Design the sequence.
């Protein structure tokens, strides 16, 4: 049975849960940089967090399973000469991470399989000499190997070949600082937002602008954009009245948004995190204490609000786990790593299900670690969607086996041959060997039952003798003992109930006594106040007892009879002329010295 107006969705009951304290990563000095970035990156093996450092930039890399308190001086990735602004793990190798910094460089690092045992200062690749100002954002290509995009404050977007450390294309169409950049699902287009409030869709190979929209959001604060799997663009920004908004766009036609909705009024920049497998968007604002999540569909209103996860502490940054790292045994569809000033807290989003089997509808095939293209193939112009993998294969050893319904070779238990009715068997051999008896004659009607004697005669009749064996006596004794135990239990319950009743009655009487005492004290205070007020009133009414204080009259100025008002007026005019003369002199001096208004 369906109800009109109720949207059917398998994600309607998604809820977020903060993991237990033993799953937190504590003792981390998270960076206090004001740059609008997430400062956290995570994959199924490692967790990377940008930390506070003096005299250079560094970030911390921890194995994902080593939760708890971090040592005082842990090994770091420290090779930048200025603060690190963004970090991103490679989608094809969980040990490769890229970082960008205020020192105008991008560096690529290789983390050992067991984690850092000592600090790393030498990168595997260094991408430099192109950006002339700080590099704020980086993003790996989703399907091509060793292709990296960077965006800097010099208004340039650069596409790099990490393997050869060479730039492939330089995009110079932006007129101001970039706020975000991102690839589409197969890496054939990129979307950027800029301080000039323009949303652009660009060809990454040629740098040509395919479509653009000026003032995608009217506010002057930073905007963010992310590509969806079906080619639409999801953006977040601010209105002219500083109200936070989200919008959905068609990348081929940015003239009007598909939908535009206001979220709330706040100052924090909203970061969108997109799950292409379930088509869900998570919004987490910097400085907020909540994470909102939406489902994007083809039906109006296109972006459906589901719920939000609230906490008491604001978030300094967020890390989003790829679908390869979620726990399918608990129906987990997303996991965030929330940054606090001195720790990192995992937050899990799950879909409640009663079945313990693998939920195929929640876990479609996701992007694998096998690249679909090499760097040279992408440079030549080839395009391909990311290779996919099954999450069920990752958990095949621990998931319960799915029952096989086909290929059963057991015989049908209901398909049995009909057998002749069998004769009743008996254990009496003499009866079995005797010839069969003739059919029994019809039984005569039952005799008429005589009425029982009156009650008095029944009372006089002697009691019937009952002969019981030893077993019967034992059962009677056990029954009597059981009845006695029940009787004792009932008595104990009755005594307990009576004691409780008396205790409640005493409490009630004590409460009534307290209330009566309080009421008597209140009445006594009221009477005392009334007597004091009556005493004051009688004192004021009696003129002999109360005399108001007389205020002394102000002395009147005495003007001598021979005072000359004309002389005083002439003196005031002279002083006024002198003041004007001094003002003119001051203005001439200010003009001569050049210090006037």
Sequence:
């Amino acid at each position: 049975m369906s109800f009109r107006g109720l949207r059917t969705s398998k994600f309607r009951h998604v809820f977020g849960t903060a993991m237990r304290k033993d799953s937190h990563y504590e003792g981390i000095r998270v960076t206090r940089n004001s740059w609008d970035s997430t400062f956290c990156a995570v994959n199924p093996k490692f967790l990377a967090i940008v930390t506070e450092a003096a005299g250079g930039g560094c970030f911390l890399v921890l194995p994902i399973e080593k939760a708890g308190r971090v040592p005082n001086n842990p090994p770091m990735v420290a090779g930048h000469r200025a603060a690190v602004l963004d970090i991103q793990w490679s989608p094809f190798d969980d040990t490769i991470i890229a970082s960008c910094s205020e020192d105008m460089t991008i560096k690529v690092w290789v983390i050992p399989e067991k984690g850092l045992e000592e600090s790393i200062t030498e990168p595997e690749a260094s991408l430099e000499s192109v950006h002339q100002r700080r590099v704020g954002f980086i993003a790996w290509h989703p399907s091509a190997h060793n292709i990296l995009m960077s965006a800097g404050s010099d208004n340039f977007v650069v596409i790099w070949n990490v393997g050869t450390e060479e730039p492939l294309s330089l995009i110079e169409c932006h007129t101001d600082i970039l706020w975000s950049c991102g690839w589409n699902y197969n890496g054939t287009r990129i979307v950027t937002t800029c301080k000039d409030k323009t949303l652009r869709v660009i060809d990454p190979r040629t740098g040509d602008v395919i479509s653009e929209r000026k003032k995608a959001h009217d506010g002057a604060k930073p905007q963010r954009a992310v590509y969806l799997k079906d080619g639409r663009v999801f953006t977040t920004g601010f209105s002219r009245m500083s109200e936070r908004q989200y919008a959905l766009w068609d990348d081929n036609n940015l003239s009007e948004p598909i939908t535009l909705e206001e979220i709330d009024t706040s100052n924090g920049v909203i970061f969108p995190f997109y799950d292409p497998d379930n088509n869900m968007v998570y919004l987490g604002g910097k400085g907020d204490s909540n994470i909102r999540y939406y489902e994007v569909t083809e039906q109006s209103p296109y972006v459906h609000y589901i719920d939000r996860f609230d906490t008491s502490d604001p978030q300094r940054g967020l890390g989003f786990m790829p679908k390869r790292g979620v726990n399918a045994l608990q129906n987990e569809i997303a996991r965030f790593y929330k940054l606090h000033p001195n720790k990192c807290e995992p937050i899990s989003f799950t879909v409640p299900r009663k079945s313990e089997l693998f939920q195929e509808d929640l876990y479609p095939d996701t992007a694998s670690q096998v690249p679909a293209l090499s760097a040279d193939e992408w440079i030549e112009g080839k395009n391909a969607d990311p290779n996919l993998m099954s999450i069920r294969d990752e958990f095949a050893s621990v998931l319960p086996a799915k029952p096989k319904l086909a290929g059963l070779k057991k015989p049908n238990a209901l398909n049995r041959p009909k057998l002749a009715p069998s004769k009743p068997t008996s254990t009496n051999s003499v009866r079995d060997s005797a010839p069969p008896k003739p059919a029994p004659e019809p039984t005569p009607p039952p005799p008429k039952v005589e009425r029982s004697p009156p009650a008095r005669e029944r009372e006089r009749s002697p009691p019937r003798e009952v002969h019981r064996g030893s077993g019967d006596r034992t059962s009677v004794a056990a029954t009597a003992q059981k009845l006695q135990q029940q009787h004792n239990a009932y008595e104990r319950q009755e005594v307990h109930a009576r004691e409780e009743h008396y205790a409640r009655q005493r409490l009630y009487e004590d409460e009534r006594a307290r209330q009566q005492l309080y009421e008597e004290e209140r009445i006594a205070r009221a009477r005392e106040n009334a007597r004091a007020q009556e005493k004051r009133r009688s004192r004021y009414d009696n003129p002999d007892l109360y005399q108001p204080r007389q205020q002394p009259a102000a002395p009147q100025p005495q003007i001598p009879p021979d005072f000359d008002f004309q002389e005083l007026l002439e003196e005031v005019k002279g002083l006024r002329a002198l003041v004007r003369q001094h003002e003119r002199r001051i203005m001439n001096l200010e003009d001569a010295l050049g210090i006037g208004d």
